[in-house]
Amino acid sequence: MENTFETIREILGSPMWGFAWKILLFAVIVLWVALVFWTLKDARKRIDDAVIVGVAVATSLVFPFIGTLVYTMLRPAEYLADVRERELEMLSMEQDLRSMRVCPECREPAKDDYIVCPKCRRSLRGTCDSCGRPLEHWWKACPYCGDGVAPAGGRYDDDVTEAFSRAARDYDQEATPYS
To answer: Could you read off the pLDDT tens digit of each residue along the chain, which spans 179 residues?
Structure first.
């Protein structure tokens, strides 16, 4: 039994074993510094507040390995770029909804270039006799070709104009209830 302990003591006292421990210690230190650097990079991508980023990095630096693990559990799920992109998409969709018209008859959303409502077939706009482009009912001249516009019957339909204005106003109030 004493021979076994003597062998273990010789192995632990050898210069090769000391070198292996130094390599292992160096690898652990490099891993620790790499985790601190990773925490810094990741926190900057996910957190907008510089103080919180500093606290996350300091925690990772002061408490090796455990600080990074705690940061990983508590960090925000999304990158700031993803959050901003989603917000821009939502703003874009809201803007598209605001720019859409509604049919005064059935309240169906209608794009700006629609001439009739696709749901109830009500006439939403007229067309220019010269160039064939869509015209609003209240326009007195075609903005595309400059030709004068006179609807059938020789007068402008004020009822249609009022109906469009009322429908657009109602739609805006429904689309933005908190404004």
So the answer is: 678 878 888 877 888 888 999 999 999 999 999 999 999 999 999 999 999 999 999 999 999 999 999 999 999 999 999 999 999 999 988 887 776 678 888 888 887 778 888 889 888 888 888 888 888 777 888 888 887 765 544 444 455 556 556 665 665 565 555 44
> Is 136 in the same domain as 70?
no
Q: pTM for this structure?
A: 0.51
Same domain, 72 and 105: no
In the 8-state DSSP scheme, what is residue 150?
Answer: -
Give strand pairing partners of 134. Answer: 127
- DSSP state, 102? E
Q: Are 167 and 103 in contact (CB under 8 A)?
A: yes
CA distance 84 to 130: 46
Residue 88 lies in a domain: no
Residue 101 phi/psi, 5° resolution?
Answer: -95, 170
Q: In terms of residue numbers, what domain contains 13?
A: 2-80
